[in-house]
Amino acid sequence: MIDQYPVTAADRFTFGLWTVGNRGADPFGSAVRPALSPVEIVKGLAKVGAWGVNLHDNDLIPMGSSAPERDRIVSEFKRALSDCGMQVPMATTNLFSHPVFKDGAFTAGDSRVRAFAVRKAMTAIELGVELGATTIVFWGGREGSETDALKDPRDAIRWYRESLNHLCAWTKAQGWGLRFALEAKPNEPRGDIYLATTGHMLHFITTLDHPQMCGVNPEVAHETMAGLSMVHAVAQAMECGKLFHIDLNAQRIGKYDQDLRFGSEDLKGAFFLVRLLEGTGGYPAYTGPRHFDAHAYRTEDVEGVWDFARGCMRTYKILAVRARAFDGDPEVQGILQSNAGGTAALGDAALGGTAQIDPDAIATRGLRAERLDQLAIEHIMGVRQ
Ligand code: DIG
Ligand code: MN
Ligand code: MN
User: Which residues pair with 13 in a beta bridge?
Assistant: First the structure.
């Protein structure tokens, strides 16, 4: 049977080494799957049709590796990338695993830790550049608190800014043309994480010395954990030109960070997110990588991991077709057009015409959102072409 949703390099699907390399350990149980080497992951992702692979520094190079060992590992990885035609569009730094970061990295109260974190990030950025990355993600997993008795959040934010300002200035001086994408999360592993949502990050960027090189990396699970709309977070980032990267996965509200297969929860939210990214609703499409920051269920063996990876990409492709069909549906367009009259830009004419506005008549008008949403549901369910 011909696959109607073939994955191609043009889809720009990427996975992190840590995603398909996740061994299924959780806070209550040890690993259930064997470790996959970075080279095995590159080969496996190429086989399922991914375009690229992302990494934290220590996903590839164990902390404490000697320079010759580091060079050997990188050389072997680069050979696998070349053999498989895989890209490395994004790189990031692990600023959360080592115990030294227990009170944060860029926001640690101990300035020696902050300096160590900035130096580690600089080394990770150099690795990313060596592998061809153009985007550097910063996820401040340990930048938070369990008790605010320990430090004033204003000190933490100031230290965060100081670290990023240094990294922006240093990176710009190298002439690499990199962009930084800041990733928000409301909690876990810290009780509360500073700059908890994409909205917080968008404001924080405006306070930096080099805001133009900084954008956001919203994640479905993280906005959902905060009880917020990922669609609205991404739309706001796109509207101000700050969607530099995106972490796609799935999440049930009110739970720990599940990092589930894309589209496996809240299918309607995934549909409207894909509609934004694909630009079928009239605004420009997102042109960056479609990165799946997710992992397979603990129940899975290695074959199940590749089922997970295929599922992420296939669901995205199916929803992209459904979104195009939805926006190409004459009945959908008819309802959208019937509501388009009130979207004229506010101006003298509109304000001048306020005398003709009959608020009571407008208040009684129905918008046919029920029919429109039913059409969306039917396109998602595949019963309407
Ligand atoms: C978790 O959501 C974070 C880390 O996996 C990584 O730093 C970032 C990259 O997408 N997402
Ligand atoms: Mn993420
Ligand atoms: Mn997550």
Answer: 290
Q: Is the pTM of this model over 0.70?
A: yes
CB-CB neighbours of 324 under 10 Å? 16
- Ranges of CATH 3.20.20.150 domains, the chain: 9-327
DSSP string covering 321-352? HHHHHHHT-HHHHHHHHHTGGGGSPPSHHHHH
Classify the C-alpha dihedral 9-326-272-252 as positive or negative.
negative
Please state, as a whole number, how many other Cβ atoms lie within 10 Å of the Cβ of residue 106. 25
Both tokens of residue 98?
């080592």
User: Is residue 11 within 8 Å of 290, Cβ to Cβ?
Assistant: yes
Q: Output the CA 219–ligand 2 centroid distance in Å.
A: 6
* Interval between CA 165 and ligand 2 midpoint (Å): 22
Residues 308/20, Cβ–Cβ less than 8 Å: yes
Give the residue from 97, 75, 95, 77 showing the smallest Cα distance to 87. Answer: 77
117-133 tens-digit pLDDT: 999 999 999 999 999 99
Sheet holding 135-139, edge to edge: 214-216, 179-183, 135-139, 90-92, 52-56, 13-16, 290-292, 247-248
Measured from the CB, is residue 216 less than 6 Å from ligand 1? no
Closest CA to 122 of 193, 88, 173: 173
| 51-to-288, 313, 381 alpha-carbon distances in Å | 12, 11, 28
Neighbours of 245 (CB within 10 A): 30
Looking at ligand 1, which atom is closest to the CA of residue 96?
Answer: 7
Query: Does CATH place domain 9-327 in 3.20.20.150?
Result: yes
- C-alpha–C-alpha distance, residues 275 and 267, integer Å: 12
Please name the amino acid found at residue 3.
D
What are the pLDDT digits (tens) for 288-330? 999 999 999 999 999 999 999 999 999 999 999 999 999 999 9
